[in-house]
Amino acid sequence: MSDGFDPSQIAAVTFDCYGTLIDWEAGIRAYVAPHVERASSGALPPAAWVARWEPIQFGLLTPYRPYREVLAESFEATMRSLELEVFADGGPGLARSMAEWPPFPDTVAALRRIARRRRIGVVSNVDDELLAQTVGQLLAPFSVLVTAEEAQAYKPAEAPFRIALDRLGMPPSSVLHAAFGWKYDLAPARALGMRTCFVNRSGAPREGGPPPDLEVPSLAALAAALDV
Predict the structure, then answer these.
(1) Closest by alpha carbon to 126, among 105, 162, 151, 104?
(2) What is the model's pTM?
(3) Cross-strand pairs, 216
């Protein structure tokens, strides 16, 4: 916890969704595993496919287009870049699978604990429909839900965060944004004056730039840190 950070001054917490609340790596690997197994005859592990997919996907976020299109195009581009056979429903199927991606084991309980004393929200790089399908798994009383579709821009653009702050009607310094994404979440939130929490489940090294106000290994640890 950084010097000068007072948890009692935090009135709301916003969260990145996929990778922070939802185990997106487990979800996407579960989807791509049979596709990669069939196309590579078992020669390529799903983790290698995901590593190739990530930069391709991020490269398609600007200019704005619906996330379903980003997923479909990035899936097909990844398969082709690896010289793997791709079928017509592979990309659209990836978007449909998002509704089944599981929350991390501590997510639901931590969200409900935090929401007892603070407003909570989600700022996510997806379409409205995709987030609505996921939120049903989280069983938490969100005050705000903001998507890239609504903002017509993907994080690290500031537009989604501005919408969240406007709806909360609170000064940025009283809102904590929690995420695992250094560049796509913590940097723009900090630029707007929000407090930041690095949810570092994997123990990854911090990237460059100012440190977050708080670093935790899990959402359960964040809930405990805020429960003062």
Answers:
(1) 151
(2) 0.94
(3) 199
Which of 58, 79, 100 corresponds to the end of one domain? Answer: 100
| Phi–psi pair at 67, nearest 5 degrees | -65, -30
Buried b / exposed e along 65-101 (16+ C-beta atoms within 10 A): ebbbebbbebbbbbbeebebebeeebbebbbeebeeb
What would the pLDDT profile of 82-126 be if each residue is shown by its tens digit? 999 999 999 999 999 999 999 999 999 999 999 999 999 999 999
The CATH number of the domain holding residue 70 is 1.10.150
CB 135 within 8 A of CB 99: no
Report whether 88 contacts 27 (CB < 8 A). no
